Amino acid sequence: QVQLVESGGGSVQAGGSLRLSCVVSGYIARTYCMGWFRQAPGKEREGIATIYTPAGTTYYADSVKGRFTISQDNGKNTLYLQMNSLKPDDTAMYYCAAVGGFCLSSRSAYFNYWGQGTQVTVSS
Fold first, then answer.
1. What is the 3-state secondary structure (H, E, C) of 38-77?
2. How far is Cα 29 from Cα 27, in angstroms, rounded to an integer?
3. For residue 75, what pLDDT is reported?
4. Could you report the per-residue pLDDT of 33-85, keeping only the tens digit for each?
5. CB contact at 8 A, 88 and 122
6. pLDDT at 99 exceeding the cut of 90
7. In angstroms, rounded to a whole number, what is the distance separating the alpha carbons of residues 96 and 21?
8. What whole-number distance in Å separates Cα of residue 82 and Cα of residue 102?
9. Residue 69 and residue 67: Cα distance in Å, rounded?
10. pLDDT of residue 27
11. Are 79 and 95 spatial neighbours (Cβ–Cβ below 8 Å)?
12. How far apart are the first and last CA of the chain?
C-alpha cells in the first residue's frame, strides 16, 4: 500500500522560504510521476509542479515557475518542494501526489495516491 506523508509547512513572511517534504512508503510503479498540489479556501486544487521518475523531467505551473523547485531523493524515498520568494497568494494547503507511469497531466484527477497535506501560510 502506498502512503505519502507531507511535512515542512508553516507560517512565513512574504519573501521568505520553506521546504516541503513528502516521504513515500510502498511501491508505486517502475516509472512514476509525482507532483505537488495546493488548494486555497474556496479554490480548486492546483497542480504546481511534477517530476517524472526516473528521467527527472519536471513541470512547473506559471504561478510558481522560477520560485519553486521540485526534487527527489530516491535513496530516501522523499519528494521535496523548495519554495522561495513566497507571496501571500501562495497561502494554501499543499499536497503531494503520485501515479504510475508518465506525467501526462498536472490535473489532480490524474493522480491516485495522495498525502494528507501540510499548511503553508504567507503573511504580508
1. EECCCCCCEEEEEEEECCCEEEECCCCCCCEEEEEEHHHC
2. 6
3. 82
4. 999 999 999 999 999 999 999 999 999 999 999 999 999 998 879 999 999 99
5. yes
6. yes
7. 9
8. 22
9. 7
10. 93
11. no
12. 41
Question: What DSSP state is assigned to residue 15?
Answer: T
Tell me the residue length of the chain.
124
Please name the residue that has the C-alpha cell 491516485. Answer: 112
The percentage of the chain sitting over the pLDDT mark of 70, rounded to a whole number, equals: 100
Which amino acid is present at 61?
A
- Cα 106 from Cα 95, distance rounded (Å): 13
Residue 39, C-alpha cell as written in the block: 488548494
pLDDT, tens only, 15-29: 999 999 999 999 999
Residue with cell 503553508: 120
- 9-37 burial code (b ≥16 CB/10 A, e <16): beebeeeeebebbbebeeebeeebbbbbb
Instruction: Specify the amino acid at residue 68.
Output: F
Cell of 14: 512574504
